Amino acid sequence: MAVLAALAGCGVSTVDEVRVDWPPFKDGAPLVLPSDPAQCPDLSGSYRAAGELRAGKADPGVADLQRLLANTLGLAGLRDTAARTWRPTAAASVTFRAAPDGWRIQADDGLGGGSADLLPLRAGRAGADAAADERSPDPFGLQRFSGCTQGRFWISARRDWRQHESMGMYRTMALLRPLAGGLLVSVQRESQSIGLLPWYSSDEDRSQYWFAPR
What we know:
Layout: H1 2-8, E1 11-15, E2 18-22, E3 45-48, E4 52-56, H2 60-63, H3 65-72, E5 93-99, E6 102-108, E7 114-120, H4 128-133, E8 142-149, E9 152-163, E10 166-179, E11 182-194, E12 200-211
Antiparallel strand pairs: 1-2, 3-5, 4-12, 5-6, 6-7, 8-9, 9-10, 10-11, 11-12
Organism: Alcaligenes xylosoxydans xylosoxydans (Achromobacter xylosoxidans)
Protein name: Lipoprotein 13
């Protein structure tokens, strides 16, 4: 019964002063926040790829802005390929340039290597309509939603997995906003899984990093 209660229950948290309602694990409902284009921040700028921990748990996957965008948040154009690998130096940077439909992201590792992709601005509806209107396809099965609220740009991502008789998922909520000339990124990540016994496990991490202007 405890397992069923854990799977059925909804969680509520606060990420960078914004309330986040986490849908039940097996519900399949998208993790979204209210969205209003008028509340979008201006993220334009060039930032150091290596962040400074401001709060929460140190997390290498969040501390590197390029890795966060490429892997956790699913910007496929930034991911490593056979011909290109992200090898950041102290000079590595990530640049946001405003575009009509979001921000063009340019990552430079400081060694002459780089990658680029569009971070889409999808300031549409939340709830059931978001599943139809705001989902971004991903070759690795990641579902991504995004929008703006309270002066922050939010991105949620979810990846489900199944192995033999076990199943689970990873999901992330990230909020981005300008701060002191740099970029403040607040992230909550959780993983949940269930197996045959039934056994159930759940884990959660929170991190906040500031990326200085370049």
